[in-house]
């Protein structure tokens, strides 16, 4: 058996001559456990919010989105685009055209993003899950075009879910100069009628600025023929997203970019990752402070065990072996605290996920999508937390143990 580990284990669990050392050792374990627990729970909550946001975008964003690298539109009849329809891994291919326009309703005006979509958009995403109102998702018939606005746009324009009068939509003519004397001549206008539906993504980026209508209406308003701003794809079940994405990139070449759902919302997820990283760094500093309790516990233990150290030296133990005893003592305190912290942290995460006993607050009822903090435990985060605690614990005890033992040995040498 490893002698330093055996002695360190006896020191940790045996009763000391001074009861204060037992208390400080217990406090050290609790400090490391609490810091570990905080890391596990905090990172899991950030994961929960990230997963929640990603599910919201799933109902609106496609699995893969093809955009142009050289402009805001491209020709949907490009041979490279047409070849994608022959790929067996693609289940739905839908064309989309987006651009800015001004919308007016009974004197109220606002800027919006008009998104023209094809009829197969319902097969592309889970759009039905975020539609509210009474009506069918019909965006065009033989007479008029219909619109599905975001929930916040309905409030801004004061239209209500089902409005009687049509929306007036204005867009600048492509390539035309503004006529200062009569600016209205520089704009194209059209009308959109209520479909009886609105969508709610619970993200201002969409709810406050997007309107869904037919692709034909968007092309007519913005003066395009076969151009689109994006090609949106849904893959068949079982298809490897990364492999298909790489294959499409290779076929389309450098003129196009292929984005997955996370890349389509890169800014949102980048901010969330930065927040998670900052929280991790701050909690690691707190963990470092908690490890000072371990140093205090070891300092008192070294003083308390001076007689044992002298006995070990007389039995032939060298300075390295004695230093390793106290180093193992500090590592065992850190390891036990890590195990307890991870276990309790996982237990709290499971309970929160199942029962949601920590809510967002009474004032938040109805203001958020969920009433309680969402959590999602990732194995990589648990490994990161465990490794962080063990590394910080080792660094925090290695030098102090070495320094204190050296002082003790020098003191004994000159006695």
Describe this structure in words.
With 415 residues, the chain is α+β, with helices and mostly antiparallel strands. The chain is 52% helix and 18% strand. The chain has helices at residues 3-13, 19-58, 79-84, 121-124, 151-157, 204-207, 215-222, 241-252, 261-264, 266-304, 306-314, 319-355, 379-413, and strands at 64-68, 74-75, 90-105, 108-117, 131-133, 146-149, 167-172, 187-194, 197-199, 210-214, 227-228, 230-235, 256-260. It has a 6-stranded mixed barrel with strand order 3-4-10-6-8-7. A two-stranded antiparallel ribbon has the order 2-11. Strands 5-9 form a two-stranded antiparallel ribbon. Strand 3 (90-105) and strand 4 (108-117) form a beta hairpin. Helix 1 packs across helix 12 (319-355), helix 2 crosses helix 12 (319-355) and helix 12 packs antiparallel against helix 13. The model has no long low-confidence stretch (mean pLDDT 83).
* SS element count, helices: 13
Class by SSE composition? alpha+beta
Alpha carbon gap, first and last residue = 33 Å
Radius of gyration: 32 Å
Oligomer: single chain
Beta-strand segment tally = 13
Largest sheet: 6 strands, mixed, barrel
Shape: elongated
Mean pLDDT: 83
Order of strands, widest sheet: 3-4-10-6-8-7
Top keywords for this entry?
415 residues, 13 helices, single chain, two-stranded antiparallel sheet, 52% helix, alpha+beta, elongated
